[in-house]
Amino acid sequence: MQIQFTKTDRALDAINLAVAGLRDGVGPLLTVFLIQLGTLNPQKLSWVLAMPAIAGLWIYIPVGRLYDRVREKKYLLMAGAGLTATSALFISGEPSFAWLIVLQGLAGLAACMLNVGIPAISLQVAKVDGLGLRFARNEVFSKIGNFGALALSGFISHHFGIHWIFGVVTAFSVLVILASSTLPAAKREASALGTPNARPGGIKEVFDWRECFRNAPFLRIVIVCFLLQLTNAPLFMIFEQGYVPLHAKTGAAHISMALILSQVIIFGGSLWFAARTITSNAFSYFAVGFLLIALRGFVFANGFNDVTLAFGQLLDGLIASIVILVPMRTVAALDPLHFNLRLGTVGTVVGLGAALSMVSAGYLIDWLGHAHAPLLFSAVALVGLILAIWFMRVQKTPPVTELPPVLAPAV
Q1: 205 three-class SS
Q2: pTM for the full model?
């Protein structure tokens, strides 16, 4: 069977490329910028970097519900791009600690709108059956944006100064807005999930977000995703704080190249996962993720040099391949009708894990030092490995939510 891609698919390709460039054009180098400012101690730096995740705790679920209810999702994407560019431009002005907290919170809101938006539109366009292929295509163009943004940011920071990387964010935000504007209008008879609207004779929205936590298979996924982010999120930030002062002139460029390496691994891994049915053995992949996180912590504890940087980011690429795609595919199989809301719930607990670990990392650096703090997160990852193995034995195959008769495919 020949696969055909429509104008909507091509618009989504452009959006994925632009959002990836917007997200990665400055995000990974923000720590370098803040360290070079020299005005923040490790505790304040950890609070600034954790603020987007803290903001996400409060807004991921509302954003997910908003995407479920709104027909024209492209306007939410455009708003997210505009907020990201606004916060980046103000951060480039070297504001005070209080303003950095506010601007990072604004960036967290924008990140929620972008992170939930692309899967939401993808599900609306491709439906559940075509979601794997659509996600794979998303990753192809995301990686093009990743590579381009990281290479451009590394070049600009090395030759013109790190302040100029914030201009990359502005450029990619314009691309996101233009690409989103080319999406065709959603069909009036389709709701946010490509299903009939909640009108008389249609499906009534009776879903309560608390049901997410009453569903045992979904709750296991939530717990594992929380621990994955809790253990992996702070490792690179801890490493950067030890690495950047030792490589002041070349640090930003070398970090950009290492991040490109991790993105290459993510690209290959995402395509590999997209071609497989993963809902029956999701926890085996999660177990591998925990094992790689523990190894990554040991690697980062062995010195602040380019070899450690490269190997650590290679492992991060493998970890991210699991963290990015496996939860989305599994959640889509569990409950396609409320995919965006459940994905927002996962985003909330992931944000909680990231916030807790990023904030605590600053204090752990003072207590244990840059070389030993990663080992504590490696130990927690080994606990997560045991838990994932136990979940794998308890739950072999997550039950797939059956669609109501009105959504069943025509025979």
Answers
A1: coil
A2: 0.66
